Amino acid sequence: MISLADLKARIEQGALSPEAAIGQSLEAIGALEKTIGAFVRHDGKARAQAAGPLRGIAVGIKDIIDTADFPTEMGAAIYRAHQPRADAPVVMALKQAGATIIGKTTTTAFAANDPTATLNPHNHAHTPGGSSSGSAAAVAAGMIPLALGTQTGGSVIRPASFCGVAAIKPSYRLLPTVGVKCFSWTLDTVGLFGAGVRDVALGLAAMTRRPELVVPSSVAAPRIGVVTQAFAGAPEPSGAEALQKAARAAEQAGATVRELAMPEIIAEAWRIHPVVQEFEAHQSFAWEYGQHYDAMPPLLRGRLDESKGGTPAEYDAAMDVTLRARQALAAILGEVDVLLTLSAPAAAPEGLSSTGDPRYNRLWTLMGVPCVNVPTLIAEGGLPVGVTAIAGFGGDAKALAAASFVEAALAK
Amino acid sequence: MISLADLKARIEQGALSPEAAIGQSLEAIGALEKTIGAFVRHDGKARAQAAGPLRGIAVGIKDIIDTADFPTEMGAAIYRAHQPRADAPVVMALKQAGATIIGKTTTTAFAANDPTATLNPHNHAHTPGGSSSGSAAAVAAGMIPLALGTQTGGSVIRPASFCGVAAIKPSYRLLPTVGVKCFSWTLDTVGLFGAGVRDVALGLAAMTRRPELVVPSSVAAPRIGVVTQAFAGAPEPSGAEALQKAARAAEQAGATVRELAMPEIIAEAWRIHPVVQEFEAHQSFAWEYGQHYDAMPPLLRGRLDESKGGTPAEYDAAMDVTLRARQALAAILGEVDVLLTLSAPAAAPEGLSSTGDPRYNRLWTLMGVPCVNVPTLIAEGGLPVGVTAIAGFGGDAKALAAASFVEAALAK
């Protein structure tokens, strides 16, 4: 993989030109893209910018995020060749920081379930996960050092876990979702993929002009609460093993680690996530579902068919649970620095028909709290499994620092 | 003006065909639009739908809201002839309720300050207010029974006050802002204009499938807290008179009315509204401001120039004030049913160079609470002045009922 931190240091030292850094990505795309299929399209003539903290950094943008220089097709026939007028604010933030938008990465249709043909770089017989399939796979394959994705259920953290890359789903609205195809306005969150935790931290810090997000060279041992999310069902062996391994490594490196039970309201929030998501999705996709029913991606259409009867009263009740669960979670996060939980039930499933199960991710999306995937182990078939570090709302720096601590502990 | 409630009743009784109702609007547009200039474009061949609670209701859509059947030009040269692919969810909600989208109404450029040529129907030498200029003017002129606008500072309530129409800025995100050009994602709110309070209530109830928003035939006398917003400066005589008149009328009709002092955190929230607005606007308009600086509307560009130095730390502090003020306001709204305050400092100013001052509106937009404008008096020059009824977050039905009570009290 290409480390953003490493690239940035070499560029700043003058050991590498921004143009050569972009060239390295173009070369890797030339060699690997045909096999992996992580891009919808890319700019083979992309050039580096001369200035900015991300000069020389090639970034892939999930194809539900508007770009003025590339069509934005949403992975869906309805938007074939659709050309937005403007760049989304997150794209402009990257450009203003000096990055080069090198192309658009594949997405499941409308960032829902209908899969892309993208392969998992670690094992081509397996899915890279979704919905941000191309962004995770492009970073994992070593084609680019940074990519943007989005998460409504588990669409950033799960593919990061399956592809063995670091990723952050920041606090809700730390990055604007303006110009990003909406699934659920309460849930949709823009996230970043990179080789390691320090890499995504540098990307997020540059995009938001928040230097405090950069992981310091030395990180104090955090107080960690391990959450198994029993309400979401038991994981498979490789998922369970990853959580145990990460917790043990952190403890051996000096962290305080204990298992935390979650109150019933948190389990309730996990249960009602789909109520919020589907009620809003019926409004967000009203035009597509109402006017282009036959052309709708079949898995998403089926979900909308099933959830047609959702009422405002059910939605209001779910939003009430959400608010109470956020308060309960804030109280819990007063006792520990971060939570550590599963990123996925197991390694990536075989085949491309499913992008895997977001059941360990969706609660945290609904809570709006920052989540960082830390690659943890390699399971059978060479497939990675990660864990998630979680801080309280607005505690993105804390989540990144703790994730970096766990990452370093695992490397020992 | 055309009353939605009246039209709807006659259509449901079979006394008026939906087609004839749409024809009435087309005729009025034919007669008045040339003078008022409330529409960017309209469909002279618009037809009624056969079913739905809003069948026969012609609706104007502010031209920053995406429509698949009309270009959406944002009142700005940069978006001339821009044709969105999809209808915004609020447009689809109207269509699904049976309404007819009759055209796009004028907006100040990007819903900021640069004015349109739209005239105030009550006095052509005066502004109709903004940014939802055309929506307020089209309803006030009797061209259409319902229109959509948006508010980030005072862009729904202020033009409603200036044009003598009812309007609601609902609770934050009761109506999705998906497909609406973003100014500030924390503030932007879609609102409705109609002839009277019961009219906008019927429109909002149909759009949201929430029958509880319909104002009942008999409304209990509310407990009203009058708020003068001294922190925003003193009003001019016509504004002060409107607030006094509405309060007195409500009291005489049986309401409990008392003046309420606001705690310092509320005044502080009023002060920091522009910090939130401009920090987010720099991101929302990053593409336009960064790539089309010369074509930017000059007043908005000037605001962005001035607020260029805004930092994440200032924004975080402002968001912290916002949260604390929302909690304080929720406590205050436990003591009374609604607040009553100024909709504008006075009647509409003369000329078209300014759309007026949103200083009495912006706090409530930041608080996310439902606001309803009630036309209250006619000042010098035949110009209307309104007042605003405000309930707690999610109390849209309460705000509408109380506004209807005040409206009826004023009619006595």
From TrEMBL, chains A, B:
Gene3D superfamilies per the UniProt record, alphabetical: Amidase signature (AS) domain
All copies of the Amidase domain together span 45-398
- Which positions make up the signal peptide? none
List the molecular function annotations (GO) for this entry.
Answer: catalytic activity
> Per its UniProt record, what Pfam families does this chain match?
Amidase
Per the similarity annotation, which family is this? Belongs to the amidase family.
Q: What is this protein called?
A: Amidase
Which source organism does the UniProt entry give?
Answer: Bradyrhizobium septentrionale
